Amino acid sequence: MEITESGTILFRNTMRVTDGHLDDFRQAITRAVDFARAHGPQLMVEVFIDEERMLAHSFQLYRDSDAIRTHWKLSDPYIREVMKHCTVQHFEVFGEPDDDIVAALKTPDGESFPFAVSPRLTGFNRLLTTDPGEPPARPPAAAG
User: Fold this and answer.
1) Nearest Cα to Cα of residue 95 among 60, 69, 71
2) Calpha distance 126→139 (Å, rounded)
3) What values do phi and psi take at 127, rounded to 5?
4) Average pLDDT over residues 95-109
5) 31-87: per-residue pLDDT in tens?
6) Do 32 and 78 form a contact (C-beta atoms < 8 A)?
7) Is 91:14 a contact under the CB 8 Å cutoff?
């Protein structure tokens, strides 16, 4: 089943890891992702690190703005711990989050950082659209 009408929102966060903090950053972000896997509303979280340039890239896919709000409420302590070891270089939002989400794009301490919002033009996804508590839909049986 392909979904062509999508309210999904993708975050791409580029972070500069503070010199001397690489191991602490790795541990903090791993704990944050483990927490999100167990409790968060994200559909996907991936983190990549370029040790040579001391940059990390985090991608998070959300169903909608409500999922982002839930993530921020649940994960604040984990986000704060990660931010002790890096600074946001650039933050990109792909999709159309609610105005309050855009207005709230700041560090946990309220500092601003550069960001851009790119509204969705077109596309599709094959992600399950059931609620997390519902069993996934089964594909149709093959004819024959």
Assistant:
1) 60
2) 12
3) -75, 150
4) 88
5) 999 999 999 999 999 999 999 999 999 999 999 999 999 999 999 999 999 999 999
6) yes
7) yes
Alpha carbon 100 to its chain's center:
17
Structure tokens at 64: 């909608």
Interatomic CA distance for residues 142 and 8, integer angstroms: 30
Tokens linked to 59: 């991608």
Average pLDDT value for the chain: 87
Do 60 and 37 contact (CB within 8 A), yes or no? no
What whole-number distance in Å separates Cα of residue 94 and Cα of residue 10?
Answer: 5
In this structure, what token pair is assigned to residue 28? 């903090």
CB 49 within 8 A of CB 56: yes
* Beta-bridge partners for 17: 86
Q: Is the whole-model pTM more than 0.85?
A: no
End-to-end CA distance of the chain: give it in Å, rounded. Answer: 20
- Which position has the higher pLDDT, 113 or 109? 113
Distance of CA 114 to the CA centre of its chain: 17
Residues sharing a CB contact under 8 Å with residue 59, sequence separation 6 or more, in sequence order: 10, 11, 12, 13, 44, 45, 46, 47
